[in-house]
Design goal:
five-stranded mixed beta sheet; alpha/beta; Nitrilase/N-carbamoyl-D-aminoacid amidohydrolase
Length: 405
Amino acid sequence: MKLQSKTTFELLVLPLLIAIAFSAFIYWEHFHLTSKVLNTFMGLGALYGLLHAPKRTLLIAGFWIGLLWCYWIGYSFQYYGLGWAKPWVALGFGVVYALYYGSMGLTHNPFLRGAILFVLTYFWPMDFNWMQPELIFVESYMGFEKWQFALILATLASTSLFVKYRKIIPLLPLIFAIQPTYTPPQKPDVRIKLVSTDISQDLKWQESMMGDIINENFHQIDLAINQGYDLVVLPESAFVIYMNHYPDIEEQLLKRSQKIAILTGTLHEEDSLHYNVSYLFNKGEITVAKKTILVPFGEYIPLPKILQDWVNRHVFEGGSNFVTAEKPTDFIIKGVKFRNAICYEATREELYTPDAKYLIAMSNNGWFEPSIEPTLQNLLIRFYARKNGSMVFHAANGGGSGIVY
C-alpha cells in the first residue's frame, strides 16, 4: 500500500506540482495577479523539483509543462480547416517537452541535471524559442541572465550534499543571483499612438469585411492626427491586402503621412515572392520593412525540403511560403531610430542589438484567441528588452498592445 502511494505521488502528484510551479508566473500575469514573491519561490521550487525528483517524474513533469506553456499553438490550425488537429498539436508539444525535460532523467546527479538544463536553454525544438527556462524569473527577485541561472541551478543542486536543516547552508549564494530593480531606458521624444484591435481571425480575412477594416484603419489614423501624435502604429496585417497592389490606398496613406508618420502591417509581393511586412508612410515617402525571422509552422515549415513542400501544399494550402529579408529595417522618426519587429521577431534576441534601443513591434494574436499567448509573448519581449536595455512599442490585434520594458 505504501509503495502504491509513493508511485501515485511520483507519477501523478509531483509532476503536476512541478509543472504548475514552473508555469504559474504566466498565469499570474495573465490574470493580473503577478507577485514577485510568489514567482521567486515557485520558480526556485520548480527548479529544485526538476533537479531532485525521481527520474520517472521528469518525463511527466515535462509533458505538463509543455501543455501549460503551449496548449494554444494548435488554435491557428482551425483557420486552415484543420480544427480537429488542435488537441493533437497540444499533445505533440507535450511530448516534445516531455523529452526536453525528461532528458534530465538520464542521471540522478543534481549537478549533472543542472548542467543538462543549462545546455537546454540554448536548444529550441523546431526552432521555436518560446520555451525559455530562465523566463520563470522575469518578474521575480531573481536575475535571469545566463550566469545567474547557472548560479541558481548550482546552488539548488548543492543541497544534495547536506542533510536536514543544513540544506539551507548552500542556499546562501542565491543572494548573488538577486536582480536589482530594473531601470528602463528613457522614452524617446516621439508621441506614438499604438492602435489595439480585436478582430476575430475568422472575420479578418473575409473579403466582405475588407472595406470595414480598411475604413476603421483610416479612422484610427485620422484620430491620431487630430490628437497630435507624431507616429501611429497599426498591428500586423492591419491592412489585409498586398499593399503594392492597391495604389489608391497607398495614395491615401501617403497624403496623411504629411501630417503623421504611419506604420502599418500588411503584405507585399515582389518578383512573385510573398512577404509579411510593415509599410512606413512618412512625409510622402514609403519604406517597406520585410520580416527577417518567420514563425515556425505559421510562415515556414521547419522540416527537410521534401517534407516542407508536401506539408505546405497539402496541409497549409500554400499558406506557409513567405520569404524573408536578410536584415531588419530601422526607421528614423523625428531623429530617433526605431527597429521594426513583426510578431515573432519581437521575441527573438537577434533583433535586440546594442544599436537598437527602441523597437516597434506589431502582432496579430487573433490566431490564438482566447489563450495565454499574448501574455507569454509580452513576457518574452520583456525578457529580451530588459536583457538588452531596450524599449518596445507594441501594437497588436487580439491582445498584447502597450509599451514593454
